[in-house]
Each structure stands twice: as C-alpha cells, then as structure tokens.
Amino acid sequence: MATTIPGYDYDAAAPSPVSAEELQQLRENVLFGPDDEVALKQAGDVLSDQVEDVLDVWYDFVGSHRHLLHPFTGADGEPHDDYLARVRTRFGQWIRDTCERPYDARWLAYQEEIALRHTPARKNRTDAVESTSYVPLRHVITLIYPITATIRPFLEKSGLPAETVEAMHEAWRKSVILQVALWSRPYAAQLW
C-alpha cells in the first residue's frame, strides 16, 4: 500500500510508545474484534470510490465552524488553502488506512505520528506552514461524532442489507474512537 502523498510516509514512522498489550486493551475497551476487522475491510470497498465525497462533507463541516478551521489559519486569521489541501489528501489516505491496513506495529506507529502532528511537537512541520501550534484536544475528541455519523450515508449507498451497513458503521465508529484514544496520548502522556 505504498503512496506518494507528500508528508505521508507510513513506513518511516518511529515506533509507538504504546505497547501491543495497551493496544489490545483499547481494542477490548471498544469491543473491537475480528468481525469488526472484516466489516471495516468491507467498508473500505464501499468507500473506495467515495473518499472525495466524504472529504467534501467533512471539509464543509470544518469550514463552517471558525473554531475548527482555526488550526489551519495563519497569523492573519485566514486559512492556508494549500495547507488544507495537503491535509485533505492525507485525510483521504487515513480513511483508506482505517479500513484496509492491519492494526499492527506499523499502524500503531503511524497513529503516533498522526497524534504528534496535532500537538506542539510536530504541528506545522510536515507542511512547513506557520499556523497555530496545536489542535485543541477537545476538538479532536468531539469530532468523533461527525466523523462517525456522516459516514453512514456513504455506507448505505452500497445497497447492502441494513445489518451489514450497521456492522460496517459500528466497526468504523469503534475504530475512530480507538484512534482518537491513541491520538490523546501525546496530549497527556504522563496520565495516559
């Protein structure tokens, strides 16, 4: 699953400080099991041709809320359009990775990289922009809802039975919660 997306080097991410055992505990906490892995792969098939449409919905949502757009603005308060575009490309790959990649050590390492890019440790470095120094954790956490709720209509477009759509949607929700839990680690490393 190699990609040529600028700023996206999945295989170069440093190992995560989160252990395999801790990841397993988080998986158990959200009831994420083998059936969810299957459902996510199926969701990946369904979403593969709709990624840009999903991103349109998400970017419209973020763009309509000044406080969510703020981490993408410069000192003048105006959004960096090129920064938003580069992040959008990586966000699209994140959708694919959520559904298609095994949740192994490499995946865990890249989750840490994503997390750090939201904090003062690495925010703005990948794209060499001057913007806010972090994305507030409260926004990362509360975006769980729109990122999970808005995916359902795209899954429903598959025409698959309602119970299959529900399984894909629940697997997506569990995965997003799991990832946000991992992304919270750098914000509160001593308490994590």
UniProtKB/TrEMBL annotation:
* Superkingdom to which the source organism belongs: Bacteria
Q: Which SUPFAM superfamilies match?
A: Globin-like
> A GO molecular function for this record?
heme binding
Domain Globin-sensor, which positions? Answer: 20-189
InterPro entries documented for this protein: Globin-like_sf (IPR009050), Globin-sensor_dom (IPR044398), Globin/Proto (IPR012292), Protoglobin (IPR012102)
Q: Where are the transmembrane segments?
A: none
- Name of this chain's protein: Protogloblin ApPgb
Origin organism is Georgenia subflava
